[in-house]
Fold this sequence. Notes:
277 residues; 8-stranded parallel sheet; two-stranded antiparallel ribbon
Amino acid sequence: MASPSIPTLAAHGAAIPAIGFGTSQLPDPARAVAAALAVGYRHLDAARKYGTEEGVGEGIRLAKVPREKLFITTKVSHENLRAADFARSVEQSLKALGVSYVDLLLVHWPNAAIPLAESMGALARARRDGLARHLGVANFNIALLDEAIRLCPEPLVTLQAEFHPYLDQARLLAGLRQRGMILTGYCPLGRGRLINDAVIGEIARRRGRSVAQIALRWAIQHGNVVPIPRSSNPQRIAQNLAVFDFSLDDDEMQRIGSLRRRDGRIADPVGRAPAWD
């Protein structure tokens, strides 16, 4: 469940808090997660690959927020998509997080060397065994997503992908809308690249908001996007959550949307990334 101040987005039975807290590459994940929960975040995004699940679990314990009020996501890495490895990864994640289930379990990246049918079967089994309430994938293109939907016996509620004004994700976003799914957007601040953007900066100054708040609000106003910013700074953690008491107008949305670049993609690992839409 989300904090009362955070709306939720619905997809195939899931109610996902409209903003999450990212936990990759945090130097002190326990402290950052505890700070995020203290100011009202209820959606935490983790992954086995991040190496921060233990810290996330400790942060949850420090914050003393009841488990049923949290929406916790974790992911199975691309090298663990064989059924036995998949099950082991999920077990390790739950132990590290200190929980008996996650609210959302994702395949972190596709792996062409492992049959997708096997991976989707393992993903569905985690839900049927009560280890995950909802399922999804990350870093898939639309063709792979459709194949995953076809092969997975349980519904997929989200595709997690890079999403920020410098990257044109219009085709992917439209595809998810057609399939009744949510886009969970990582790197919503472009890993800091947006901070000095002149257009977003001008809107932020006029609005009396931070650049990050404007970028996050832009993502949220797409309607089926859940951004997952991360920070280790308590002030910025709190600021990033304060994006539900204002709206951008159509002109501001269009100006920010026009910032897309051909070289806007940040996460594009050679040999692992699919042919992007």
